[in-house]
Each structure stands twice: as C-alpha cells, then as structure tokens.
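Review this today:
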Amino acid sequence: MSRRLQRLNHLFQEELAELVRSELRDPRLSTLLSITRVDVSADLENADVYVSVMGAPEEKSASMSALAAAGPFLRRQLLERVHIRRIPSLHFRLDESIEEAAHILDLMRKVRGE
C-alpha cells in the first residue's frame, strides 16, 4: 500500500468519525459506534469503512442500515472537507474484532481464575 493511500485511509477515518458523531441525527445509530478502519481502493473508486458497534444484534443491524442510508450524505460532506479530485463510494462493513477480543479476554480471565 502506498504512503498516499495510507494517509487517505487515516484522513477518511478521522473525518467520517467526526461526521458520524456531529452531523448524523438518526435515532437508529448506536451511541457506542466507532469507525475502526477505512480501506480506500487504489483507483479511489471505493472505500470500505469498518464500523464497530457495541450492543445487541438488533442495534448493530439498525446502525448499519442507518449508515448505509447516510452514505451519500457522508460522501458529500467529505467532498467539502477533503480536497481531492475524487471521493470514493462508501461501503460500510461491520467490524466485530473488538467484541471478539473482549470475549477472548473474558475466557482468559476465567481460565486464570480456575
């Protein structure tokens, strides 16, 4: 991955996190939502946005639906904030790695306690 793509990934992650926190007012969004990573394709056509949502499966599904609906709005906002020729299409993906890590830590604590 080129240095430019790494910088764009980080920039989009920061900007999207700020936009979700400050601009989106959808009641379906969970309060425990974070953008964990962004992967922009080399041609800048698409970006996979990985989102961690803590909560019940219904909350996760509702939050992902709200983000998908807000995708065009977020893309327009990025166009105003980030000054590059092409803003990629945003594709939101659920990232459950944080919950999996927490589950593994709980299992390790149980094993140590026994």
User: Anything to note?
Assistant: The helical segments are 3-22, 57-81, 97-113. The first strand starts at residue 33 and ends at 40. The longest helix spans residues 57-81. The mean pLDDT is 92.
